[in-house]
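Progress report, Aim 2. The chain analyzed during this reporting quarter is listed below.
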Amino acid sequence: MRNVFDEQLQELNNKIIEMGALTEHSISSAVEALLTQNIELAATVGDDERESDKKEREIETLCYDLLLRQQPVARDLRVISAALKMVTDMERIADQAEDIAEITKHLAGAEFIKQPEDITRMAEATKKMLKESIDSFVRRDLILAMAVLEHDDVVDELFMTIRGDLIDLIHENPKNGEQALDLLMIAKYLERIGDHASNIAEWVIFMITGEHRNANYNSTQE
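Predicted structure tokens for the chain:
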């Protein structure tokens, strides 16, 4: 019986890895579409989001099957509980990548009022947080999960820099206002993605230690 349970836990790990990779790809595609103003690429992010929804349902089904059929206790129960919470955050990240792609479609063809280097840095930072939070789950690595939480400060600082620069551009020329708001929303979505990655790391910490820290973002918030 334990062998079957261990096999299903490995399947859970694999599905979490697959969903994490898909979600990371969504972020990359959304930001690349922004930088290149590629509407066709932006449209593919919606496909990724729907695939993410499908993977979320698959993982939830597997988790519920483990809970009902295997009746796990103690640490195994925390693994399954953490996985159920994590996929919610990953699905939210996919949603926000799609939101970025939708704004990108609106910006297509317009000259940038500010080159989006800091947005690129934010995207790379959030992808790093997401990848490492998933890795910490698979490897049961408490130190790596804690490092993800510390890296969230980098994302927050970049957001504040972008926000300040865009406010200055609006003051210089009110005509910059519409695009500035679009770019600010993109930065805000990336900040939320960082918060969701932190949430995932928080659940990994709970899985390993049994202690639930207060996540810095509510997973139920869009």
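The domain at 2-209 is CATH 1.20.58.220 (Methane Monooxygenase Hydroxylase; Chain G, domain 1). Confidence is low (pLDDT under 50) at residues 216-222. These observations will guide the mutagenesis work planned for the next reporting period.
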